[in-house]
Amino acid sequence: MDGDKVEESNLNSQNYRMEDIGKPKSEALKEYLLRINPEAHITLVNKYIDEDNVEALVKDHDAAINSLVFRSDIPFVFDGWCQKYNIPVIHPYNLGWGGLAFVVTPAGPQLKDFYDKWENFEINFIEHVINYFKTWGQPKPWIEHIVTRYKDEKDTLPPPQLPVASWIAAGLCVNLLFCIATGQRTKIYPKFYLSSIIGDMN
């Protein structure tokens, strides 16, 4: 589901091609996925998620992936409806050179329990990740560098993204969906999964 159209700036981090520019994102992605598997059952909704449609969208599902941008409180609203309908939610993040994901369960802590304002939620959570690794003596300077540079920007910009992290985050989502579908245990928010070769000294 997406109400956006493909732009050239999407090509460095999202699964679109030059010929998709100008097409609705949801339609272009469905076409791509059906080329991979023509028998896949895909429902696309060429709209943005908002307060009026979110309940109807989530209520009949077993799991959800919340990749909504924090431009409003809609990511909180999305998770609130999932909690009501007993749906676990996966949250993926593109960190440039690494992927991050966490799982919010209906009975566990919710996004608002960590930080109850949508403004700067993503930055605050990434700083939580940075502090977690510092506490355990495993600092992640590359993430600190990204956050510092981002906070120093004078303009309002979306967080920086690279395709390598999109693939990593997508892989984390698929793995977590498999675990949820098969009843395997996962870490629960605010615990998280981080994957990157940056800073791996083994």
Give me some keywords for this one.
alpha+beta, 202 residues, 2 domains, four-stranded mixed β-sheet
Overview of this protein structure:
It is a single chain. Strand 1, helix 3 and strand 2 (89-94) form a beta-alpha-beta unit. Helix 5 runs antiparallel to helix 6. This protein is 39% helix and 8% strand. The protein folds into 2 domains: 1-48, no CATH class; 54-195, no CATH class. It has 202 residues and is of the alpha+beta class. A 4-stranded mixed sheet has the order 1-2-3-4, with helices on one face. The mean pLDDT is 91. It is globular. It has helices spanning 25-36, 54-58, 74-84, 111-114, 121-135, 141-152, 163-181, and strands spanning 64-65, 89-94, 99-104, 193-195. The protein is built from 7 helices and 4 strands.
Major sheet: size, sense and barrel closure? 4 strands, mixed
**Can you give the mean pLDDT?**
91
Strand content: 5-15%
Helix-and-strand structural type = alpha+beta
Number of strands: 4
Strand arrangement within the widest β-sheet reads 1-2-3-4
List segments where confidence is low: pLDDT < 50 over at least 5 consecutive residues. none
Overall structural domain count: 2
Short structural summary:
The protein is an alpha+beta fold. The radius of gyration is 17 Å and the shape is globular.
Write the layout of secondary structure elements.
Layout: H1 25-36, H2 54-58, E1 64-65, H3 74-84, E2 89-94, E3 99-104, H4 111-114, H5 121-135, H6 141-152, H7 163-181, E4 193-195
Parallel strand pairs: 1-2
Antiparallel strand pairs: 2-3, 3-4
Helix pairs in contact: 5-6
